[in-house]
Amino acid sequence: MSQNPPNLRPDLAPKPLFDTPARPGQPRIGMVSLGCPKALVDSERILTRLRAEGYAISPDYQGADAVIVNTCGFLDSAKAESLEAIGEALAANGRVIVTGCLGAEPEYITGAHPSVMAVTGPHQYEQVLDAVHVAVPPSPDPFVDLLPATGVKLTPRHYSYLKISEGCNHKCRFCIIPDMRGRLVSRPAHAVMREAEKLVEAGVRELLVISQDTSAYGVDIKHAASSGRDGREHRAHITDLARDLGSLGAWVRLHYVYPYPHVRDLIPLMTEGLVLPYLDIPFQHAHPETLKRMARPAAAAKTLDEIAAWRAVCPEITLRSTFIVGYPGETEEEFQTLLDWMDEAQLDRVGCFQYENVEGARSNALPDHVPDEVKQDRWERFMEKAQAISEAKLAAKIGTRQQVLVDSVDAEGATCRTKADAPEIDGNLFIDDDFEGLTPGDIVTVEVDEASEYDLWGRRI
To answer: Which residues bind [4Fe-4S] cluster 1 (predicted)?
Structure first.
């Protein structure tokens, strides 16, 4: 087992898992899923539909009749990674269908790779299926092509992402997601609950709630209530949804939560044990002038008050966030304000990006872009600060008892996560002794006996 360093790309999706062999003659489709967990959910939906139509899922290029590449287009570096993945799939297989956020710019893709078979945009499920049907006609067998209630999952069976909405109403200057995915569109609450119920019934122990703006869930549909199959009404509001999800008995973890005032209503649910004491909040910066240039709420001081209020109600709450350094116009004074804010906020889990232009983003036109060497220096100083805070916070957990969820077990031990750790982006807790008999999905209690900058070690109690 290896320690888990800070993942500085929290938008990266986990590696897909495939374990269903194909029958002889069954058409096979490969999938490369790039980008955020929201894109991973899109990939799961596409593959679920394909499996229902008789396609097998290939774990490699060579065994696939065609490959779908679900792309990311959030940053220029992500676009380059997507083009590289498309090129790799073309070189290894030759029959490639492109979808996802970068698919909103088809000329950009076909200009680099004119031989792709089709290009579709984000969450265009029907168009992707149509392209697959043309490339590889389906060959269903109604006697064997049956799916579990959860459909096809690209994450381990014991946790699952639960997407509650698409799109975003914010107009941050550095972000083009609203242009790619549109404005906020919330799913009906009863549909979210039905999916969550099916996942928990199938053995999922942790639900990771995701969207572009989780706090705004239901705003577009005026927080309408809808009835499930059992006749129970569910209201499309994040507080109500969190309470309803918490009643299912699984861990519920909230991601991408903007710090609106009503977020404070979620904190009592954490103290009651209905929702994990964990908030993933994209603060992005702390200096008011930088935030104004980003077109984000410029109330960092009030944010510190909110954090203090959350901790007063729920002292064990874990706060995760991401920040951008080197944003156009960022002065040394503004950056120092961010470091000072970090000293006060004492966030538990932190990721950091160096600003880069994104085609179509309004921030590209801002004056006073920061030189690359200055961005690199500020990133290193920021991460040094974040690492010191993380190290101190984890050291304080030595001697405490923690509930952990087992993610994997090998000959060396069990790799687990505490309630403070989201998969892929946060730390791990390792059990080196007395791990025999543990399996992924188990929840056990440990006493922490060692800590590093980002990970913990413990023994079972």
So the answer is: 36, 72, 101
Q: Tell me if 101 is assigned to a ligand binding site.
A: yes
pLDDT of residue 39: 78
**pLDDT of 130 strictly over 70:** yes
Asked if domains 28-135 and 401-460 share a fold, the reply is: no
Q: Is 314 annotated as a binding residue?
A: no
DSSP 371: P
Contacts of 62 (CB under 8 A, 6+ apart): 92, 93
pLDDT at 121: 85
Lateral strand order in the sheet of 159-163: 159-163, 206-210, 251-254, 278-280, 318-325, 349-354
Residue 111: both structure tokens together? 């200009």
Tokens linked to 399: 């001697």
Fold of 28-135: Rossmann fold (3.40.50)
- Alpha-carbon distance of 237 to 211, in angstroms, equals 13
CATH architecture of 401-460: Beta Barrel (2.40)
* 7 has pLDDT over 60: no
DSSP for 246-287 reads: HTTSSEEEE-S----GGGGGTHHHHHTTSS-SEEE---B---
Alpha-carbon span 181 to 303, nearest angstrom = 28
Q: What is the pTM of this model?
A: 0.75
> Given a cut of 70, is residue 366 above it in pLDDT?
yes
The string of pLDDT tens digits covering residues 368-413 is 999 999 999 999 999 999 999 999 999 999 999 999 999 999 999 9
Take residue 285 and report the two structure tokens written for it.
Answer: 């910066």
The percent of the chain in helix, strand and coil, each rounded to the nearest 5, is 35, 20, 45
Listed by start position, the domains of the chain span 28-135, 401-460
352 is in an annotated binding site: no
208 contact partners, CB below 8 Å, separation of at least 6: 37, 159, 160, 161, 162, 253, 255, 422, 423
